[in-house]
């Protein structure tokens, strides 16, 4: 059964078709595309009976908008998405609102796990932590999302996850090269392609780390990315890097504020109140769930 989060614009569910402008979002979709610096990914579609098309393109459409979290507030992003959804005919409109609400609930619960349960498991080895998280993630998807949504959104992901778990089990049991090769060959062709793409990402990260260690200029790094992956991909990589750097800087600023002598001299309750005020001003509610784990991983400078 789909569990829904409270809708910020609950009254909009009964609005007439085409009345999305009445939601008065502070950020329109054109501004979002401009701000993101990329064309929209994914598709929001209905079929011939006016039901929502639930497929991987819908998840891509959700993720495209949600990737702006940290640059825009989650409320603004959700309003942009809701405005688009409100243009759909019924019953697709209500179906899309329900899937969006459940998907946001799933992501919020996943962030909460990473903030709390994952920290409790730091003493276990890396493979055990991965096993625990993957198994819990799959259960969480089925708790929040309808079976058809889980299938449409996560079939390929879970094939790769299950492959990873099987490979870890084989390695723990001392599997030889032949057994590992048989496991690789048992994967569907589409998943093998995805694995190869994942390996390409790892190669990219290794190359970028090597260039940074060699003090290669940002311009030369970008030129290499254009040669290897094309102009559009290089632009997207630059945007991701910029968002990561901005996130890291906000974490460092928060840590500096938290450790400041002026704050340390205050009473505990006053200090906690000021820290919460700072977090509310500089981090979204989803980001605040990540702060503890992110600070633990942040390198001292």
Automatic annotation (TrEMBL):
Domain of life of the organism encoding this protein: Bacteria
Location of this chain's protein in the cell: Cell inner membrane
Molecular function in Gene Ontology: unfolded protein binding
Predominant cellular place of this UniProt entry's protein: membrane
Record-linked InterPro entries: Lipase_chaperone
Any GO BP annotation: protein folding
Record carries keyword Ribosomal protein: no
Coiled coil feature spans: 194-250
UniProtKB keywords: Cell inner membrane, Cell membrane, Chaperone, Coiled coil, Lipid degradation, Lipid metabolism, Membrane, Transmembrane, Transmembrane helix
Function, as annotated: May be involved in the folding of the extracellular lipase during its passage through the periplasm.
Protein family (similarity comment): Belongs to the lipase chaperone family.
Name of the protein: Lipase chaperone
Organism: Thalassolituus oleivorans MIL-1
